[in-house]
């Protein structure tokens, strides 16, 4: 299957933001449930356990990664149904993510943002987020789950060129 990268890079005062979007024909509350309720999150990202809430840490199982490790994720902000901000640290580095929802006329846009301290590893990071967001889409509309081989390495060059493409533009 041909997949096309959607990620864009924006420079900020503290680094860069990698931004990917997806649109759903659903109210924001329903999309919010897909990214926050454990049984729905398990369908596209992985199950999680713990007590959710801003300032708390939960454990998420990365079921689509090798060895399916559990990872601690701190919830920085939780503002239903518009904004979820989380952070984590693992062997690959620090992860600071925001999921922002905006609804208009029954359609909700999910704006996924990874705040980056530097732009190293975009060739690996970008295709991974494209895959996960398409997994979210498939979990909601019942379409076949995507295959990671359709994202990596074919999207690697696109994301590696983003820093040279200019702010807010596609490569």
Structural features, described:
The protein has 171 residues and is of the alpha+beta class. The protein has one domain: 2-Layer Sandwich (Alpha-D-Glucose-1,6-Bisphosphate, Chain A, domain 4). The chain has 4 helices and 8 strands, in the order E-E-H-H-E-E-E-E-E-E-H-H. The chain has helices at 28-36, 38-41, 122-141, 156-165; strands at 8-12, 15-24, 48-49, 57-61, 70-79, 83-90, 93-104, 107-116. An 8-stranded antiparallel beta sheet has the order 1-2-8-7-6-5-4-3. A hairpin with a 2-residue loop joins strand 1 (8-12) and strand 2. The longest helix has 20 residues, at 122-141. It starts with 7 loop residues before the first strand and ends in a 6-residue tail after the last helix. 19% of the residues are buried.
Under CATH at level 1, the class stands as Alpha Beta
Rg from C-alpha positions?
15 Å
Shape estimate: globular
- The amount of helix comes to 25-40%
What are the SSEs and their pairings?
Blueprint: E1 8-12, E2 15-24, H1 28-36, H2 38-41, E3 48-49, E4 57-61, E5 70-79, E6 83-90, E7 93-104, E8 107-116, H3 122-141, H4 156-165
Antiparallel strand pairs: 1-2, 2-8, 3-4, 4-5, 5-6, 6-7, 7-8
Helix pairs in contact: 3-4
List its traits.
8 strands; ASHA1/2-like_C; 171 residues; Alpha-D-Glucose-1,6-Bisphosphate, Chain A, domain 4; alpha+beta; START-like_dom_sf
């Amino acid at each position: 299957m041909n997949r096309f990268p959607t990620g864009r890079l924006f420079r900020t005062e503290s680094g860069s933001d990698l931004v990917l979007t997806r649109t759903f024909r659903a109210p924001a509350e329903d999309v919010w449930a897909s990214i926050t309720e454990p049984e729905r999150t398990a369908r596209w990202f992985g199950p999680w356990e713990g007590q959710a809430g801003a300032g708390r840490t939960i454990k998420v199982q990365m079921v689509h990664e090798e060895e399916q490790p559990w990872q601690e994720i701190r919830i920085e902000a939780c503002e239903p149904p518009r904004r979820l901000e989380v952070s984590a640290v693992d062997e690959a580095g620090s992860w600071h993510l925001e999921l922002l929802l905006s609804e208009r006329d029954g359609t909700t846009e999910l704006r996924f943002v990874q705040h980056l301290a530097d732009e190293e590893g975009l060739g690996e990071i970008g295709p991974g987020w494209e895959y996960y967001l398409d997994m979210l889409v498939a979990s909601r509309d019942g379409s076949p789950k995507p295959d990671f081989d359709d994202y990596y390495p074919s999207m690697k060059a696109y994301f590696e060129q983003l820093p040279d493409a200019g702010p807010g533009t596609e490569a």
